[in-house]
Amino acid sequence: QVQLVESGGGLVQAGGSLRLACAASGRLFSNSVMGWFRQAPGKEREFVAGITWIGGRTYVDDSMKDRFTISRDNAKNTMYLQMNSLRPEDTGVYYCAHRAGTITLTNDRYDAWGQGTQVTVSS
Length: 123
Known about the structure:
Mean pLDDT: 95
Distance between the termini: 40 Å
């Protein structure tokens, strides 16, 4: 079982940047995939980005790929989400998640979740 803990959220003005981190503990597999999702108030949880733990192959949602970058540090068992040029519509709770297999946008395919970190972007 993988345990995940997010950090790095906060309040930022529009146009600013934040770097989220997700620390993983427990057993990671050669085909582990880590993902970032977010959920705005009153909306469904949506996929943001994913990365393969071995190889570091990434995928970022098209609507965010010009502003968000996903990365990982295997030595620290930590995944990151660098968010630049933040907009008020980026406000929400950001979650990291784990699954074994391929990067998928469907949240119910992930088997472990962190508690989430709040990101608030003011206009």
